[in-house]
Design brief:
The protein is α/β, with parallel strands linked by helices. 31% of the residues lie in helices and 20% in strands. The chain has helices at residues 15-26, 48-58, 76-79, 85-94, 111-114, 128-137, 157-164, 203-209, and strands spanning 4-7, 31-34, 39-44, 67-69, 99-104, 119-123, 141-142, 170-173, 184-187, 194-197.
Length: 211
């Protein structure tokens, strides 16, 4: 596979470029692009075959679940069973932004995405590129970091290219990412708040918001 690299302006993304990326994703292909945190490896979250291909390329164990990215808060209700009140509070405060909420998933998300678990991590990145792409594909996407498993998460297209050249269809080069650190992951299942990974948003900010 030959990987194409295209420059893209993160503040004014070219619609023609995003339509090309969306077409690849709809056909089950893989695209690398900048998010607000790090560069992400993207495929259609509703396509089990594409998701398995992503796992294989990243050399990520199938036992480690993926998160999905959506374009707005309204779509969260479609992909979760019940949205806890605390999740809604955090979503309205920090999304779009570097926060992943782990909530019980709906049946629309294939089990391969969540490693058979009943919950799913959900993101709404603060990235015009990502949000516009999701709207063009009209489906949720999985968006783990664009690197081989256990290697550093890339903050530039060149870093992602080193790991994934020849393994993905397209890399969108939008320069260095805004934060350069992964999202904070918060579990809200069983009416409990658990910080699974502290990222750009601190633990103190999370608990201060929900007091």
């Amino acid at each position: 596979m030959q990987t194409q690299l295209i420059k893209i302006n993160p503040n004014r993304p070219a619609v023609s470029t995003l339509k090309k990326a969306a077409a690849i994703i709809k056909k089950g292909g893989l695209v690398v692009l900048p998010t607000d945190t790090v560069y992400g490896l993207v495929c259609d979250a509703t396509n089990p075959e594409a998701v398995r291909k992503l796992f294989q390329i990243k050399k990520r164990p199938l036992s480690q679940p993926l998160s999905i990215a959506l374009s707005d808060l309204l779509h969260i209700y479609k992909y979760v069973e019940n949205l806890p009140n605390l999740a809604e509070v955090l979503a309205k405060k920090f999304l779009p932004g570097p926060l992943t909420l782990v909530i019980n998933k709906s049946k629309l998300i294939p089990d391969v995405v969540t490693a058979g678990r009943d919950d799913i991590g959900i993101r709404i990145p603060d990235s015009k590129i990502v949000l516009m792409l999701i709207k063009l594909t009209r489906r949720p996407i999985v968006i783990p970091s664009a690197n081989i498993h256990n290697r550093p998460s890339p903050t530039t297209a060149q870093q992602a290219l080193k790991d994934l050249n020849g393994k993905v269809d397209l890399i969108l080069d939008g320069g260095k990412t805004k934060y350069g650190i992964e999202s904070t992951v918060v579990s809200l299942t069983n009416n409990e708040i658990k910080i699974l990974r502290e990222g750009e948003i601190s633990t103190e900010e999370i608990f201060s918001c929900v007091k």
